[in-house]
Amino acid sequence: MQGRADKGIILTTGTFTVEAKKEARRDGAPPIELVNGDDLVTLFENLEFGLRPRKTFDVDDKFFDEFR
């Protein structure tokens, strides 16, 4: 990447090790943005990228107790 790009981005559906995070911030190296699985999901949700929002409900069991 040296001399060919201003910044790198590495995506994973998992997580990054402490060593990988240190290397991404190492002095003298081009900046590398690390995007882990949780951040990737959040990004997709915020952009609605490939997703359709839907509304869901949880049953309130206490409400129905008197009818049992």
Q: Average pLDDT across residues?
A: 91
Strand content: 5-15%
Counting DSSP E segments of at least 2 residues, the number of strands comes to 2
Written as H for each helix and E for each strand, in order along the chain, the element string is: EHEHH
Assign the structural class, choosing from mainly alpha, mainly beta, alpha/beta, alpha+beta, or little secondary structure.
Answer: alpha+beta
Q: What proportion of the residues is helical, as a percent range?
A: 25-40%
Q: What can be said about the biggest beta sheet?
A: 2 strands, parallel
Q: How is the largest sheet built, in terms of strand order?
A: 1-2
Radius of gyration based on Cα positions: 21 Å
- Count of DSSP-assigned helices: 3
Low-confidence stretches: none
What is the 3D shape? Answer: elongated
Distance between the termini: 66 Å
Question: Can you walk me through this structure?
Answer:
The protein is α+β, with helices and mostly antiparallel strands. It has a domain at 8-53. The protein is built from three helices and two strands. The protein has a two-stranded parallel ribbon with strand order 1-2. Helix 1 links the parallel strand 1 (8-11) and strand 2 (32-35). The chain is elongated.
Q: What distinguishing features does this structure have?
A:
single chain; alpha+beta; elongated; 68 residues
What is the topology?
Layout: E1 8-11, H1 18-24, E2 32-35, H2 37-47, H3 61-65
Parallel strand pairs: 1-2
Quick description:
The chain has 68 residues and is α+β, with helices and mostly antiparallel strands. The protein is 34% helix and 12% strand. It is elongated.
